[in-house]
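Usage

Read records sequentially. Each one opens with the input sequence:
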Amino acid sequence: MTATTTTTRGTATIADLYRTEGKAELIGGRIVRYMATGLQPNWISLEIAVSLRSHAKKTGRGLALTDSIGYVVPELSSGRESFSPDASLYDGPLPPDKMDFIQGSPNFAVEVRSKSNYGKAAEIEIAAKRADYFEAGTKVVWDVDPVNMCIRSYRADSPETAVVFQKGDVADAEPAVPGWRIDVAELFPD
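and closes with the structure output:
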């Protein structure tokens, strides 16, 4: 989730994003690259994606996707034109060419904080990205916090209010992923 470098040449396009190596998003005509993450955030993202995949297969609804998937959206008021969540569930039309990015936003997006995603500036950046997700049509966004061992779940119908899930809780992503649940303690083992 941590931005590292930004391409400043001219106005970048989705075509430029396709040619960018590694995880990146198109925001305000610039390619924003994201640094590799540490062990714990990556492991948490994988655990969530695996659980989502199991649920999607069982219900026959949705497609669980991992880090680096590209979602292309019409330009948002912030200038953002793409997302690449740490984990997500998408339940919409697939691109005719499966090698292409998905056109549209995920139903459910998971952003797992990395080591540098703490502090006042990071909070502002995280809130802005969450607002972009909701503007694009995402129903639920999780802000997963490995340091404080909690999940802040935000819904499009109350975007400023988080439901906080901690160890001992079973988290959900209603209404984006009906019936799916995950034990928070599984994400933050001792």
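Summary fields computed downstream for this record:
- The helical segments are 14-18, 39-59, 120-136, 184-187.
- Residues 39-59 form the longest helix (21 residues).
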